[in-house]
UniProtKB/TrEMBL annotation:
Protein name: Carrier domain-containing protein
GO cellular component terms listed in the entry, alphabetical order: cytosol
MF annotations from Gene Ontology: phosphopantetheine binding
GO annotation (BP), single: amino acid activation for nonribosomal peptide biosynthetic process
Cofactor(s), names only, from the UniProt record: pantetheine 4'-phosphate
Organism encoding this protein: Bacillus safensis
SMART domains to which the protein is assigned, alphabetical: PKS_PP
Organism phylogeny: Bacteria, Bacillati, Bacillota, Bacilli, Bacillales
Swiss-Prot/TrEMBL keywords: Phosphopantetheine, Phosphoprotein
The family this protein is said to belong to: Belongs to the ATP-dependent AMP-binding enzyme family.
Residues annotated as domain Carrier: 408-483
Length: 518
């Protein structure tokens, strides 16, 4: 240790450590500093974002001021951001999904609201936030959007744009939302961190929803960005043919921090423009004649869970480091709804509880990389060529039904909660002593559960209560003991020829029909 930063009252504690420089905060703040700021080049580093890596070591992506300025300028022009616009950061600032909210609105002299995590992860409080703060645009993952898609009770008078990114969009949610809020535009937003926040976008119209249910259309490249669909020899494929997506243009980052070999592997010279570099995304796509790009999947095993890009090998690497674990395999499942989830299959002398597994993995992995399901198996099945036979692995719920004792509900409230839990967790036979998190529950599913309890039982359950009382019997007892009734919903106003404008509209925002022009 070379430097310690502390306050004046504690500085004397380090007098005997002559080799350590002690910096007192109070003195540092009051010291005079030159007012002239150093000149910054557009090609200087702006920030580094870490993403998941196959070796268990995260990759630091280096983004320049040119990269960031290009994206910010594009978004401001594309959706006509103005001083009257208001948005909120609905994700961690260490995750570039939220940069759609941070930098463009600040450059436009608009307002950025930064709520606590327990606000934007609670669907009730999130929708109240959008209304009360009169937000005009928001950026969120489809997972979070799923919580607010069916929001008939909220008018969202000021809201004019929802940007969805970080994972595949769910067309059914967009359809439900647009039917209830026809004046709010919805934009799909695709882009690896390596190409700066967003590079391919699509403004969704109601007429396209049926097509989007059949094909995952992510849109077309933004300004000064090129999308190349190539074969394994990096030659362009014809329209309609599948290929790997390469991206070139102003958003392509500098590469990976201190990983020159990996940078050389993923950031290549553009054979069609030698003065440009292109990034190899690893995404399998096809481009249609109208320019729209259709997402088909991943070339490798990389996947996006809850909006975060991960690689299964990193999770397997962390799990193998745990005591008593012998074999490990991570599989992507689509069990409840349309959102992907992770299941970790393992062999070990003894069964390891889900909570114990999660606590151990949480020491080395972020929350979004911790699997939803942990399934003990006798062995990891292999195919004839020695690869893991993923299709032969049992579903988590099949293993649970073979081992768990079923305790039926005894009251109407317990039965109602059983029905809700079954719908959220995708488990047909729910017992009142079944553990929410042992059956694949996590914070996002908890938010869905809370939303459905409110809608069907008119009861509000804080998310922390679910963690404290993770069984149906415990939650039923909580609801019976406490007054958790939700305030009566606001009834829609009677139809009139004219309505009073909101505060945001008074400030001069353009109407929804003209604020976004394509």
């Amino acid at each position: 240790m070379q430097v310690i930063v502390t306050n004046e009252s504690l500085a004397d504690s380090y007098q005997n450590h002559k080799s350590i420089q002690v910096v007192q905060v109070e003195q540092a703040v009051h010291q005079s500093h030159p007012l002239e700021l150093p000149e910054v080049s557009v090609d200087q580093l702006a920030y580094v974002i870490y993403t998941s890596g196959t070796t268990g070591k995260p990759k630091g992506v280096q983004l320049t001021h040119r990269n960031l300025s290009h994206y910010v300028s594009w978004l401001i022009n594309e959706v006509t951001l103005q001083e009257c616009d208001r948005t909120a950061l609905l994700s961690s600032y260490a995750y570039d999904l939220g940069y759609t909210s941070i930098f463009p609105v600040l450059k436009s002299r608009g307002t950025l609201y930064v709520p606590r995590e327990d606000v934007y992860t609670d669907p009730v409080r999130l929708m109240r936030l959008i209304d009360e703060q009169e937000l005009t645009y928001i950026k969120m993952t489809p997972s979070l959007f799923h919580m607010m898609a069916d929001s008939k009770e909220h008018s969202f008078d000021a809201l004019r744009l929802v940007v969805l990114g970080g994972e595949p969009m769910i067309p059914e949610d967009v359809e439900t939302f647009m039917m209830q809020h026809p004046c709010v535009a919805v934009m799909n937003h695709y882009g690896p961190t390596e190409t700066t926040i967003g590079t391919v976008t699509k403004l969704i119209t109601p007429q396209e929803l049926d097509a989007l249910k059949e094909r995952s259309l992510i849109g077309q490249p933004i300004a000064h960005t090129r999308a190349l669909v190539c074969n394994q020899q990096q030659r362009l494929v014809p329209y309609g043919a599948p290929g790997e997506l390469y991206i070139s243009g102003e958003g392509v980052s500098r590469g990976y921090l201190n990983q020159p070999e990996l940078t050389a592997e993923r950031f290549l010279e553009n054979p069609y423009d030698p003065q440009e570099r292109m990034y190899r995304t690893g995404d399998l796509v096809r481009q249609h004649a109208n320019g729209d790009i259709e997402f088909l999947g991943r070339v490798d095993d990389q996947v996006k869970i809850r909006g975060y890009r991960i690689e299964k090998q990193e999770i397997e690497h962390a799990a193998r480091a745990l005591a008593s674990i012998q074999e490990v395999y991570v599989k992507v499942l689509h069990l409840s709804g349309l959102l992907p989830e992770l299941a970790l299959y393992y062999t070990a002398p003894e069964h390891i509880g889900t909570l114990t597994f999660r606590e151990n993995l949480a020491e080395t992995l972020p929350d979004y990389m911790i699997p939803t399901y942990f399934v003990k198996v006798d062995h990891i099945p292999l195919t004839q060529n020695g690869k893991v036979d993923a299709k032969s692995l049992p579903l988590p719920h099949e293993v649970h039904m073979n081992h768990a004792a079923h305790v039926a509900p005894e009251t109407e409230l317990e039965q109602a909660l059983c029905d809700i839990w079954s719908e959220v967790l995708g488990v047909e036979q729910m017992g009142v002593l079944d553990h929410f998190f042992e059956l694949g529950g996590h914070s996002l599913k908890g938010m869905v559960l809370i939303s459905k309890v409110q809608a069907k039982l008119n009861k509000h359950v804080p998310l922390k209560v679910l963690f404290e009382k993770p069984t149906i019997r415990a939650m039923a007892a909580y609801l019976e003991e406490t007054d958790s009734s939700v305030v009566t919903s606001i009834q829609p106003a009677e139809k009139q020829d004219f309505y009073p404008v909101s505060s945001a509209q008074k400030n001069g925002c353009m109407s929804c029909s003209s604020c976004i022009q394509k």
